[in-house]
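#onboarding

Welcome to the new folks! Below is a worked example of what a typical request in this channel looks like: someone posts a single protein sequence, and someone else replies with the predicted structure as tokens. Don't worry about understanding the tokens yet, we'll cover that in week two.

Example request:
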Amino acid sequence: MRTPLPSSEHLLLTAQLTHFMEDYARCLDQDDLERWPEFFADDARYKITTYDNIRAGYPFGMMYADSAAMLRDRVKALRNANIYEEQRYRHILGLPFITRAAVHTVSAQTSFMILRIMRDGQTMLFASGQYQDSIAIHDQRFLFEERIVVCDSSQIDTLLALPL
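Example response:
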């Protein structure tokens, strides 16, 4: 059975979500990590896990935070305490697929591929998967209430230093 064509409101919401997702990816791709926590509500939850963990019902993941304050602490640690090989990301995103929409919240799933570019210029596929998001909408502003990053593979090539 085919899905009916979306309404104009649905298309507008998809366009707004696409802009929000692209802004998020651009923030990470341009190493503007200090801005990253601003995409999240104060009590937001952020988790990186794998498809296998989700399928098995395991609640844990490779990275977890339950507040924007924890995300800000992670950025401070990345800038001042952690030592890792210099690298940057390039996100390639699919269009968000809205799974639920209400007056002030929307849930969506967005496919991603993330390329990792090393200091020497070597580029490789670092991660692929799906963002599973719950997003609050207030005064035309979107904020993640929950972002679960579900990686297709449990094989991570190196230390997962930067957020996905």
